[in-house]
Amino acid sequence: MAANAQPNAPKTKIPGHVTNGQPASQGQWGRAWEVDWFSLASVIFLLLFAPFIVYFFVMTCHQYGCSLTAPALDIATGRAHLSDIWAKTPAVTMKAAQLYAAWVVFQVILYSLVPDFCHKFLPGYVGGVQEGAVTPAGHVNRYEINGLQAWLITHLLWFANAHFLSWFSPTIIFDNWIPLMWCANILGYAVSTFVMIKSYLFPTNAKDCKFTGNFFYNYMMGVEFNPRIGKWFDFKLFFNGRPGIVAWTLINLSFAAKQQELYGRVSNSMILVNVLQAIYVVDFFWNETWYLKTMDICHDHFGWYLGWGDCVWLPYLYTLQGLYLVYHPVQLSTPYAMGVLLLGLLGYYIFRMANHQKDLFRRTDGRCLIWGRKPKVIECSYTSADGQKHHSKLLVSGFWGVARHFNYTGDLMGSLAYCMACGGGHLLPYFYIIYMTILLTHRCLRDEHRCASKYGRDWARYTAVVPYRLLPGIF
């Protein structure tokens, strides 16, 4: 949103930052320094119940045909007890443990030991060794950007196995879905606990750590900003992109293979979900270098929120549409299917072009054309922790003149298309759009709080020119 004149400048605020002559609190960069009662209650609630939320959605499909109300009705009427539901839930198996361990090790190898070569022959793709944004403590981390390469190698092996090698069934992920969930939970908790201990005993950079004095908040939101092992293995980048997002498209392919096995055909709704979500995933890896400058990398610390979330929440709840369609294959009418496809593609176009406009504006310091015209800007300034005054520009042209977070609007349009591809028979596949609306609205507010603290009166001038966050005329 804030298009800085310096392309590598962080969007986060530095400790001791001064805005318009007034010192800002240290809590303005990264996560909070102090924890209020509401934040602590929210943290404890998520730590206790988020794993059960994931289990609930997966269990309803496994035992109740994806009905969200049937389990509660069974328990309320005495037809079933919680112990009965738990007894029917598959436990972790040696096969699932071996499969999951092999998957994670394979992704670690692709991430850490195979330098990127895609940037050498793919025009327009930026990979290889790249620099991230400046951290709050003033450090610049270097990354080996090779996510697209890892995705391509993984999927080429998947298709080679499906058509030639036959090492395993293409339905292997679906067939071990719940046992794999327990393995993902083990990894999520293990890595979250490890980085917590690491932050106390051997942090990668002590100046980029935040301790609140509250164990639960530290555990969930993270202490270290960029925990690393060795020179290149960055926990935040690895778990944000691999293994969860690489697995996203493989999971959908396994669901499609299971639908083919059960019904003798793959429905057009399943094809839509696979295609639209694959576009999103490939876009993520194609723009992985750009991702180094986003909120996830530039603002969030690495704790349970990202460690467990990327291992469990993302692969299990972002793929609910494909899971639902295994149990309820939906064949959409051609006009409806085309409408869903157009909605998804339009949402992707807005999402990508809005981000492209901002990136172009940053890289050229405004010396570019947006929608065929010289961009309009709001000139602003801020003071860094060392007392130096910096000048910056806020873009108010193109999609950034329509709304302050119009890229999120495009993202939500794509999310809605995934859900609509499943028809209207059940609520479960619509969890994704509900969750994304809450998540992105919260991100809007977090981002704007930091920008208002950073730019002060200049931010007020900007919001007067671009008054809406997501939906012009509404919000």
UniProtKB/TrEMBL annotation:
Among Pfam families, the record links this protein to: ERG4_ERG24
Q: How does it sit in the membrane?
A: Multi-pass membrane protein
Q: Pathway involvement? A: Steroid biosynthesis; cholesterol biosynthesis
**Annotated compartments:** Endoplasmic reticulum membrane
Question: Taxonomically, which superkingdom?
Answer: Eukaryota
- Cellular compartments per GO CC: endoplasmic reticulum membrane
Q: Provide the primary localization.
A: endoplasmic reticulum
Where would you find the membrane-spanning parts of this chain? 37-58, 148-168, 180-201, 306-327, 334-351, 415-440
- Per its UniProt record, what InterPro entries does this chain match? ERG24_DHCR-like (IPR001171), Sterol_reductase_CS (IPR018083)
Enzyme superclass (EC): oxidoreductase
Q: Which catalysed reactions does the entry list for this protein?
A: 5,6beta-epoxy-5beta-cholestan-3beta-ol + H2O = 5alpha-cholestane-3beta,5,6beta-triol; cholesterol + NADP(+) = 7-dehydrocholesterol + NADPH + H(+); 7-dehydrodesmosterol + NADPH + H(+) = desmosterol + NADP(+); 5,6alpha-epoxy-5alpha-cholestan-3beta-ol + H2O = 5alpha-cholestane-3beta,5,6beta-triol
Question: What are the entry keywords?
Answer: Cholesterol biosynthesis, Cholesterol metabolism, Endoplasmic reticulum, Lipid biosynthesis, Lipid metabolism, Membrane, NADP, Oxidoreductase, Steroid biosynthesis, Steroid metabolism, Sterol biosynthesis, Sterol metabolism, Transmembrane, Transmembrane helix
- Which is one GO molecular function term here? 7-dehydrocholesterol reductase activity
Region annotated Disordered, chain positions:
1-25
- What Enzyme Commission number does this protein have? 1.3.1.21
Q: Name one GO biological process term.
A: cholesterol biosynthetic process
Summarizing the function annotation, the protein's role is: Catalyzes the last step of the cholesterol synthesis pathway, which transforms cholesta-5,7-dien-3beta-ol (7-dehydrocholesterol,7-DHC) into cholesterol by reducing the C7-C8 double bond of its sterol core. Can also metabolize cholesta-5,7,24-trien-3beta-ol (7-dehydrodemosterol, 7-DHD) to desmosterol, which is then metabolized by the Delta(24)-sterol reductase (DHCR24) to cholesterol.
Q: Which family does it belong to?
A: Belongs to the ERG4/ERG24 family.
Q: How does it assemble?
A: Interacts with DHCR24; this interaction regulates DHCR7 activity. Interacts with TMEM147.
Annotated protein name in UniProt: 7-dehydrocholesterol reductase
Task: Please report the organism this UniProt entry assigns to the protein.
Answer: Chrysochloris asiatica
